Q: What sequence folds into this?
């Protein structure tokens, strides 16, 4: 352990153990399945994980900030429904493909606004983010059903679903979008004043307040970002399907939190990184894809993922374990 | 003087806010909908709330001890699939027994991870949620299950039958609620659960075996899930693999609405019963008033946040949080 | 002596700070000159930390004025205080662990470029410049979680240097430092002094104060007791000022009938916390453990109560060797512990008075499966009367009671267990003077009625008042055991500073 910590790469790995795990499963699937090690398959993995991945980027910010957002799955459904429905409104019928623009703006604005609402409630009422967003998760799902009247929507404009399947050069557009977003959020978190203050607020709230950092606005901005990304994920998902259903995105909050925690972000806030979260998302993606290729039923993936999540928590606890002299409470 | 009076009154409103809201809802629905206050309607609400209610009782015990249990939803799927599947294979009695043992094992695993290893309960039960979902699918092979002879089996009693003229789910819900309320308020065990949730360190300094107490709360929660599965399986006489999906959060909503703090150490079973019934009555009342069933979720959103906000504000002594 | 100017960097005039029921600071006035190290001394509860918080803008004084370079100021918040040149180096570090040194140094005021990006070049350059001034051998880009405690402290000090600090307040800065690290810290403090900064240095440790300070001021019970020039005084005089004669505690001269040995400890050790500790406590006797914070006293108590695993040694109760692995074992063997921290360890604040008192024996108060309300209330009533607990009813949540009454609840809870050995850690911390007296009398009475009692305290008058024998501890070792009558303030002060009887003689 000590030697590991002494060199740079080893130290990086200790901080981001998920990447070690990725290397192991990557090598394992490459050796055990002929279809795994293939450029097209890698692209598949990126596309398949992009939905969860986009939301996980925003969730990382919120969790480093010391909060959590359970409402993202419902926001995915709302954004998808808005996206598919609005583009077929009469008012935009003469707009050609531009009819997608107002739909896109409405979807993203709705997600961002709901994020802002969550953030402002958490800030001003002092109610725990877990409870606030648990309520929002039910309420926003209700909004989706009211808006859609329980109907699925189908995109009439095939260009919309083509976008979801399109490529930029050899790379699928959704993979490109996910990678760009990852880099952008990484820069936001690691290079901007807002990003650094996000760590400070989550890591030592009292110190941050004493240093004059305004805790509330930073929290609201981060909730807005996760809302935006959840909405964006709803748009890309509906584009892939060429449709939206009111039950879209159920349990996404659980998958997203799993990915973020696998990536090393602490529930208590103050620690975590986009590199870790990206690793967490990829690990889930590779596991699902690899086991799918090996024709392991999807059920086992759930068991394995759950076990890994708990194992990561256990290992983390062992690493920070107190010695034999500690108080036994 | 008048000011302190007003403050006291505000305190009472804040503390008993949920009861007041409950009463207002009931009165409101009764005024605007004639059928709402009929006995039949009221009992049907309670009957429909029984499954969530039974699970919420178990989760309340976990929450009072200062932890969370998000695995109850997928555990309900697992238990229901199992009991329904085994019903035709080994008969209803053994099926229930085997299912209860299996579910209690899962509860023990939760309890071991959170109580003995002291891992974060949110993440542990999140992981268990996913793992148990997988287990259910492995068990059933992804197939939905049902009971062949739905009329002839005595298993029908729990979901469809009556005991002493009262619907069986109501009886089970009520008995469990009363028993657990008494356990929590009047036994040494209950006192220890409150102490562990209220101040884990002080509870150890008072000679309480904290790990065991936390462990036991998960076993109780799992047992309640088992009961809920019996009611659900008996009512539907079949089960989908994801029947309990999302229940964990509805259950938690009921617990929170009842006023049990997620920080632990406070709350009662009775309050949770009220919280769950409020959810049920909101749903029912809105339906009777002609709203679609999903409007209840919107109302629940507002009610949950207002309820907890009032509670927090009363403790803080000011409405808005002072943080910048 | 260093060159000193006569302008005060910081001057306090008649500072009064009251909390409900307590007058924490009662007209404190003193001045810190630019370019001096001014030590601030006082026992626990003397008002040092309140004064410090007033200086740092965390508390607003009820009366009195603060001057910086003879200009009157008010401190509305720590940020405001810092802007005016007064910086506090906390005992508990207030750093964001995952951020770099530079980010912590400039927390809340990171230099920006366009679009809200951090200007790393400026940030790191400015921070490295400060680190160089402090002779730190780490870089601005190091992550704080990778630093030792001593280096983290340097980061806090560096934070003070980002502004034109007129006065820097150090609160027990050496509490968790090694000797080598202390040397470095003292160099930094001397360097600050040479730059004309006024330094307030709060510490318990006499040796440090005499090494470092130019002058010292003493607080006692919220009152200012005077300022001395360090070079012209000695430990004796300072200790006397700190302890004073004003407290109305009598020395304990009672003659007690000692019973048989209730507890005997032989060669007990627990890793680095304490080493080779042996002592005995008889029935009817109060043994006081005196020493500085961190001397290992509390840890011994926690071991006896099953909360720590000893690495060596044996514990005998009434002559029989016992094994205590958990508080459950300890309680079964008849050991009770009134812990150091009332709110964190002693009480469940949201629970009623009655429920707290009966908590350790709740399993025995049952009739059938149910807790007997009558038995519980009977126990509560008994100890309410015996300890004079003032609470409107047994239903009252303990969190709503005063500190003194809370402490009585904890003591009552353990008396109700009828222990063979009662350990009381810091019996009167944070409670007002009247209640202190009551609790002292109570401890004496308990001993008289045949209990074996251990009292751990950081307050010398308290130890001298209640204990029959006093054990002086220093850095995990028992330095000397004083029998009744032989203990003096001087010898006790020497013992807890690590000076053994043979050397002192």
A:
């Amino acid at each position: 352990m000590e030697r590991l910590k002494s060199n740079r790469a080893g130290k990086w790995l200790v901080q981001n153990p998920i990447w070690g795990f990725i290397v192991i499963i990557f090598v394992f699937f490459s050796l055990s399945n002929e279809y795994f090690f293939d450029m097209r398959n890698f692209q598949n993995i990126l596309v398949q994980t992009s939905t969860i991945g986009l939301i996980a980027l925003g969730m990382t910010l919120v969790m480093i900030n010391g909060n959590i957002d359970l409402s993202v799955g419902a926001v995915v459904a709302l954004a998808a429904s808005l996206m598919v429905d609005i583009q077929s409104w009469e008012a935009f019928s003469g707009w050609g493909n531009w009819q997608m623009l107002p739909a896109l703006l409405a979807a993203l604005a709705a997600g961002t606004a709901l994020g802002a609402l969550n953030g402002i409630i958490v800030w001003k009422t002092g109610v725990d983010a877990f409870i606030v967003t648990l309520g929002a998760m039910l309420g926003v799902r209700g909004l989706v059903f009211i808006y859609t009247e329980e109907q699925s929507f189908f995109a009439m404009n095939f260009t919309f679903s083509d976008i979801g399947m399109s490529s930029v050069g050899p790379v699928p557009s959704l993979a490109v979008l996910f990678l760009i977003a990852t880099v952008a959020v990484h820069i936001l978190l690691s290079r901007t004043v807002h990003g650094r203050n996000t760590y400070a607020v989550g890591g030592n709230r009292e110190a941050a307040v004493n240093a004059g950092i305004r805790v509330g606005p930073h929290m609201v901005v981060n909730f807005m970002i996760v809302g935006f990304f959840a909405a964006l994920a709803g748009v890309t998902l509906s584009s892939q399907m060429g449709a939206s259903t009111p039950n879209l995105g159920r349990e996404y909050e659980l998958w997203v939190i799993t990915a973020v925690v696998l990536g090393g972000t602490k529930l208590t806030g103050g620690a975590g990184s986009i590199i870790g979260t990206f690793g967490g998302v990829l690990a889930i993606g590779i596991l699902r894809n690899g086991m799918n290729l090996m024709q392991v039923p999807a059920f086992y993936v759930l068991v394995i993922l759950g076990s890994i999540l708990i194992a990561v928590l256990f290992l983390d606890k062992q690493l920070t374990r107190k010695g034999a002299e500690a108080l036994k409470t | 003087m008048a000011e302190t009076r007003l403050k006291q009154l505000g305190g009472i409103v804040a503390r008993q806010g949920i009861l007041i809201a409950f009463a207002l809802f009931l009165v409101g629905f009764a005024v605007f909908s004639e059928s709402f206050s009929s006995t039949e309607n009221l009992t049907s609400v309670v009957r429909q709330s029984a499954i969530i209610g039974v699970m919420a009782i178990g989760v309340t015990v976990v929450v009072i001890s200062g932890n969370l249990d998000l695995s109850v939803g997928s555990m309900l799927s697992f238990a229901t699939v199992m009991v329904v599947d085994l019903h035709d294979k080994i008969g209803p009695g053994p099926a229930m027994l085997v299912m209860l043992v299996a579910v209690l094992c899962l509860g023990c695993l939760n309890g071991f991870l959170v109580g003995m290893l002291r891992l974060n309960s949110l993440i542990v039960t999140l992981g268990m949620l996913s793992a148990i979902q997988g287990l259910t699918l492995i068990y059933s092979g992804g197939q939905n299950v049902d009971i062949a002879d739905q009329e002839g089996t005595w298993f029908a009693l729990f979901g469809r039958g009556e005991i002493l003229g009262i619907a069986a789910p109501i009886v089970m819900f009520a008995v469990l609620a009363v028993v657990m309320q008494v356990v929590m308020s009047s036994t040494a065990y209950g006192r220890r659960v409150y102490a562990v949730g209220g101040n884990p360190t002080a509870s150890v300094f008072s000679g309480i075996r904290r790990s065991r107490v936390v462990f036991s709360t998960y076993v109780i929660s799992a047992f309640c899930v088992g009961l809920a599965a019996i009611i659900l399986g008996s009512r539907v006489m079949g089960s989908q693999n994801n029947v309990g999906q999302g229940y964990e959060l509805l259950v938690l909503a009921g617990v929170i609405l009842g006023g049990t703090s997620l920080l632990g150490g406070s709350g009662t079973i009775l309050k949770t019963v009220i919280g769950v019934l409020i959810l049920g009555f909101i749903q029912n009342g809105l339906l009777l008033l002609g709203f679609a069933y999903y409007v209840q979720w919107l109302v629940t959103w507002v009610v949950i946040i207002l309820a907890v906000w009032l509670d927090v504000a009363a403790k803080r002594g000011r409405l808005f949080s002072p943080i910048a | 002596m260093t060159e000193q100017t006569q302008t005060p960097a910081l001057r306090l005039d008649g500072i009064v700070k009251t909390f409900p029921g307590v007058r924490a600071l009662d007209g404190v006035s003193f001045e810190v000159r630019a370019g001096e190290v001014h030590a601030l001394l006082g026992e626990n509860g003397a008002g040092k930390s309140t004064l410090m918080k007033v200086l740092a803008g965390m508390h607003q004084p009820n009366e009195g004025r603060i001057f910086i370079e003879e200009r009157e100021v008010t401190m509305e918040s720590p940020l405001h205080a810092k802007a005016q040149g007064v910086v506090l180096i906390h005992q508990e570090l207030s750093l964001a662990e995952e951020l770099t040194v530079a980010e912590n140094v400039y927390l809340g005021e990171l230099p920006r470029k366009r679009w809200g990006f951090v200007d790393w070049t400026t940030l790191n350059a400015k921070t490295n410049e400060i680190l160089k001034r402090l002779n730190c051998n780490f870089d601005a880009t190091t992550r704080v979680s990778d630093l030792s405690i001593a280096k983290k402290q340097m980061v806090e000090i560096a934070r003070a240097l980002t502004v034109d600090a007129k006065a820097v307040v150090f609160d027990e800065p050496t509490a968790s430092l090694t000797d080598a690290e202390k040397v470095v810290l003292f160099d930094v403090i001397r360097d600050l002094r040479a730059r004309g900064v006024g330094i307030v240095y709060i510490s318990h440790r006499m040796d440090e104060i005499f090494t470092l300070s130019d002058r010292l001021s003493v607080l006692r019970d919220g009152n200012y007791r005077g300022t001395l020039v360090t070079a012209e005084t000695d430990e004796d005089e300072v200790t006397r000022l700190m302890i004073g004669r004003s407290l109305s505690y009598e020395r304990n001269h009672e003659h007690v009938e000692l019973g048989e040995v209730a507890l005997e400890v032989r060669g007990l050790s627990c890793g680095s916390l304490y080493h080779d500790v042996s002592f005995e406590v008889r029935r009817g006797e109060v043994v006081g453990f005196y020493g500085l914070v961190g001397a290992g006293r509390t840890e011994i108590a926690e071991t006896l109560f099953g909360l720590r695993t000893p690495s060596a040694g044996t514990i005998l109760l009434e002559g029989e060797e016992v094994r205590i692995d958990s508080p459950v074992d300890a309680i079964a063997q008849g050991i009770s512990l009134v812990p150091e921290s009332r709110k964190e360890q002693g009480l469940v604040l949201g629970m009623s008075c009655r429920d707290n008192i009966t908590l350790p024996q709740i399993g025995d108060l049952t009739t059938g499966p149910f807790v007997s309300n009558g038995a519980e209330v009977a126990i509560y009533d008994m100890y309410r009367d015996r300890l004079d607990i003032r609470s409107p009813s047994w239903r009252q949540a303990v969190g709503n009671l005063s500190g003194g009454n809370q402490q009585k609840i904890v003591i009552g809870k353990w008396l109700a267990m009828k222990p063979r050995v009662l350990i009381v850690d810091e019996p009167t911390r944070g409670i007002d003077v009247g209640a202190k007296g009551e609790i002292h009398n109570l401890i004496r009475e308990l001993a008289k009625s045949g209990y074996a009692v251990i009292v751990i305290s950081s307050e010398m008058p308290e130890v001298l008042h209640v204990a029959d024998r006093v054990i002086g501890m220093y850095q995990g070792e028992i330095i000397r055991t004083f029998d009744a009558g032989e203990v003096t303030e001087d010898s006790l002060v020497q013992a807890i500073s690590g000076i053994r009887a043979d050397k002192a003689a």
Summary: The beta strands of chain B are 145-146, 162-163, 166-167, 238-239.
